[in-house]
Design brief:
22% strand, single chain, 5-stranded mixed β-sheet, 211 residues, 30% helix, alpha+beta, Alpha-Beta Plaits, 4-stranded antiparallel β-sheet, Sulfite Reductase Hemoprotein, domain 1, 6 helices, 9 strands
Length: 211
């Protein structure tokens, strides 16, 4: 039996349910000697000794699942439930952002939170990068949130009223600032507190006003 490799599986951006046949498929990908782990972020991590990773992941995507690398990368976008389908206007933007940044290498894993309205049920401000849909197709952006430990931090606002057309570029700018200024495996919230939020504001400022 070879060494186990791992990758992440989710129901998809904005989804909270696995179909029974999807779960059966995920289990089959682990194979003999493998296992499926549920982590604290409600992600399934497939640990498998099977060598056909590309084929496995293609089959899972074909079944409608989200598949992502494990390790120090931007994690899949963590969203609210969009009021269980009642407020889904922001869902296409969350899906587009997920396709653009999830899996991108970073010094330390980055978690991006996305809330579809100002109620912020997704608790986006407690993520490394927080995105809140405020009005129509415009978003406020936050960086440096930290939910864990006995000393949680709320993210600092770095942009207001970012049009959806510029959301991906704005988040990519935040990630670029983090990669360029991080010391070793410095976490994003530590980086923001060390260099200041203004460096991040400057990086996305060109996208914060209407064209």
């Amino acid at each position: 039996m070879g060494e186990l490799q791992r990758y992440v599986v989710t129901p998809g951006v904005g989804q909270v349910f696995f179909a029974p046949e999807q779960l059966q498929l995920v289990g089959s990908m682990a194979g003999p000697g493998g296992r499926v782990e549920l982590n604290s972020f409600m992600q399934l991590i497939v640990h498998t000794a099977r060598p056909d990773l590309a084929e496995q992941q293609a089959a899972l995507r074909a079944a409608g699942l989200g598949v992502y690398p494990a390790g120090p990368v931007v994690k899949n976008i963590q969203t609210c439930t969009f009021c269980m389908g009642d407020k889904i206007d922001g869902l296409p933007d969350a899906q587009q952002l997920d396709r653009a940044v999830a899996g991108v290498p970073v010094p330390f894993p980055v978690r991006v939170g996305f809330s579809g309205c100002a109620s912020n049920c997704g608790e986006a401000l407690m993520r490394d990068i927080g995105i809140v849909r405020m009005d129509s197709d415009r978003y406020d952006l936050y960086v440096g949130g930290k939910p864990g430990s006995l000393d949680p931090l709320i993210g600092l606002k770095v942009a207001e009223a970012v049009p959806s057309a510029h959301l991906v570029e704005s988040v990519q700018g935040i990630l670029a600032q983090y990669r360029e200024s991080a010391r070793g495996k410095e976490r994003l919230w530590k980086n923001v507190r060390r260099i200041g939020a203004e460096a991040y504001r400057q990086r996305v400022r060109e996208y914060t006003t209407a064209p």
